[in-house]
Amino acid sequence: MSSQYDSFANTYSRAMALDVRRYVDYFSLTKALGDVGGKAVLDVGCGTGVITRILKQRGARRVVGLDLSEGMLDAARGEEARSPLGVEYVRRDIADAGALGPFDLVTACYVLPHASSPDQLAAMCRGIHEALAPGGRFVAIHPNDAFAVNDPAYYSAYGLRASVDGRLEDAAPMKVTVTTVDAELTISTHYWTRGGYEAALRRAGFREIRWRSPEVAPEGVEALGEAFWSNYLARPYAMLFECTKEPAQR
For position 14, what pLDDT does the model report? Predict the structure, then answer.
């Protein structure tokens, strides 16, 4: 997973500035997280640090970004050096995240789909579970298993194109192409169903799993209009879930 991101770390930040990322993904994720003031937060698969910096700016006490890609981490650390916020960045596999905790919150933005098997997905979820303090929450955004599969034109207005190689089953190879005015990158990932995610989360120790549909920020509606977002909201590419680590037994 890390090698493909090393190769396009320089263009990744531009691609992540798409309207759909700013007005839907980041808005929906931060709304699901709620007030992060004074909390310790781990952002797994942090990439160039977009989410980590948002979390710190929103008042989190400690924010750690975790990634396997040296190229992505170099870009994140470069931004931190230019505009210091006190974000920590660590190169580590998600399955080994437990040693960095405990955290009140763990976030993941399009990271879990990189798991290529149920065992690998469960190991990632287990690492996240171990990194959380008792009662801590895990909030993730990832491709919706009911998105407009293999319809390249459907999300073209939003700069996205996705296709699944083979049947719509857990761990099927999937490619996502992100297009901006001056850059295009294709990411190799995997398709997962809600059932596949829930099975992995329960294997990791999570019990109650709550699903959330993405929302458009008011600023996004004001900037681009309701009609612009209608296709996306009818069949959103993204979906969110949140789950809580059980509190310690008294």
Answer: 59
pTM above threshold 0.85: yes
Q: At what angle do helices 50-57 and 26-33 cross, to 10 degrees?
A: 40
Confirm if 88 and 64 have CB atoms less than 8 A apart. yes
Burial category of 201 from C-beta neighbours within 10 Å (exposed 0-12, middle 13-18, buried 19 and up): buried
Radius of gyration of the CA atoms of the chain, in A: 17
What are phi and psi for residue 97, nearest 5 degrees?
-75, -20
- Say how far apart CA 87 and CA 97 lie, in whole Å: 16
Cβ-contact 152, 159 below 8 angstroms? no
Euclidean distance between CA atoms 181 and 236, whole angstroms: 22
Q: Which of 46, 50, 48 is nearest to 64 (CA)?
A: 46
Element (H, E) at 227: helix 226-234
What pLDDT score was predicted for residue 2? 47
